[in-house]
Specification:
405 residues, Major capsid protein gp5 fold, hypothetical protein PF0899 fold, seven-stranded mixed beta sheet, 18 strands, 21% strand
Length: 405
């Protein structure tokens, strides 16, 4: 392969010479040199094919005639947590509404926001879902701890103009030479304080009374209310009494779109050029669902589509410019700031708190024979990077959050 590269380089040199001299094409002698090089390349390609086939044959012959069969464990049973003595979450909610003659609710912690959901059910309600939600399954998640709602402080580097390492520099010194004074790294604290968040779910009274059959449905309903609530704030939150979302991240870089109200190939390329290189491995495009028609028909300068629809049957996600793409309705609509984002969610921190608790109201939907359940939990989230990171060239800023403006 090295020889092929060498011959191809020689061919390119002939073409570059013609171009530099302003000629229309190769002369006879140059044409012969080019053809001779091509003949050598073709011969080397055949040799490479022979070597590859021989390697495959040798690998095949070295394989054992009878391979050991290793059983594959399809699933691992999860640890059974305390369910409070309830068969499912449907029975638990039925008792919250109508009272529990067995007195099981007395053993559960209560607060001014409701009754603590037993751990066996709350685990399923709070479970991360990489398909339905965007940020938390990919974020750096800090558990509740004890006490669960206490603030959690973690350092971050004050980067910006001090460089990607906040002023930390390497100095190459010879023997017995004094190390020059360097600027001390500026380290500041980021504090996560779990905020109260509520999700509302409406359930028909007939469904609730048939708790044995409706348990899984009710659990899914509460879970989706919780997932949508936290995910929306991790994206759009203002930080005032709620998480600070990625769209409001002070360390984000915002790229002005090439054409007002549109998203073009040049916008995608520009966003990639301002993304933190070491964060590309976990990078993800987040796009408004209203942007789908534009992205699906987007072409590069060679008239090639850069959107790949993926394969849902095999768990292969759609991609844009080779990176995974998720559509959502939680971002601004097409043409508005934030309709397209390139992020690495590992650079987003979440901190869980107490809960979830549940409370009910029979009065809000009394006329329609429905009961409203409110699920309350505590959580916070913040971007870890507080300033765009500056490269060693002293002028190029990058970030793990790049937003189309």
């Amino acid at each position: 392969m090295a020889k092929i590269a060498e011959k191809a380089k020689a061919q390119q040199a002939l073409l570059d010479k013609v171009k530099s001299e302003g000629r229309d094409g190769l002369n006879d002698e140059e044409l012969k040199q080019f053809d001779d090089l091509q003949a050598e390349i073709d011969n080397l390609k055949k040799q490479a094919e022979v070597a590859q086939k021989m390697e495959e044959n040798e690998k095949y012959l070295n394989e054992p005639a009878s391979k050991a069969v290793i059983p594959v464990v399809e699933s691992v049973q999860e640890e059974k947590l305390d369910d409070g003595g309830f068969k499912n979450v449907g029975e638990f909610l039925h008792c919250v509404k109508n009272g529990d003659p067995k007195g099981r609710l007395k053993a559960l912690e209560t607060s001014d926001v409701g009754i603590l959901i037993p751990p066996q059910f709350s685990r399923n309600i709070l479970r991360l879902d990489g398909e339905e939600e965007l940020i938390m399954p990919r974020a750096t998640n800090i558990p509740a701890g004890n006490p669960p709602d206490a603030p959690f402080t973690i350092p971050y580097l004050q980067q910006g103009a001090d460089g990607a390492l906040g002023g930390i520099k390497l100095t190459w010194t010879g023997e017995a030479q004094q190390v020059a004074d360097v600027k001390d790294p500026v380290i500041k604290d980021l504090t996560l304080t779990p905020h109260e968040v509520s999700g509302m779910a409406t359930i028909n009274n007939k469904t609730l009374n048939n708790w044995e059959a409706s348990g899984a449905f009710v659990e899914t309903l509460l879970r989706r209310a919780w997932i949508n609530g936290r995910d929306a704030k991790f994206i759009n939150g203002s930080g005032a009494g709620c998480p600070l979302g990625i769209l409001k991240a002070p360390g984000a870089i915002k790229i002005k779109r090439n054409t007002t109200g549109e998203a073009k190939y040049i916008d995608v390329v520009t966003m990639l050029g301002r993304f933190l290189p070491e964060a590309l491995g976990g990078a993800l495009w987040i796009a408004s669902i209203t942007l789908l028609p534009i992205l699906m028909t987007m072409k590069d300068e060679g008239n090639n589509y850069i959107f790949n629809a993926g394969d849902a049957t095999r768990g292969v996600p759609p991609t844009l410019a080779g990176l995974p793409l998720k559509f959502t309705g939680k971002t601004p609509t097409a043409g508005n700031e934030g309709d397209l984002m390139l992020v690495n969610c590992e650079y987003y921190l979440t901190k869980a708190g107490s809960g979830p608790y549940v409370a009910i109201s029979e009065h809000v939907k009394f006329s329609t024979n429905q009961t409203v359940f409110k699920i309350v939990a505590n959580i916070d989230g913040q971007p870890w990077v507080k300033d765009p990171l500056r490269f060693e060239d002293g002028k190029t800023d990058v970030s793990p959050y790049v937003i189309l403006k």
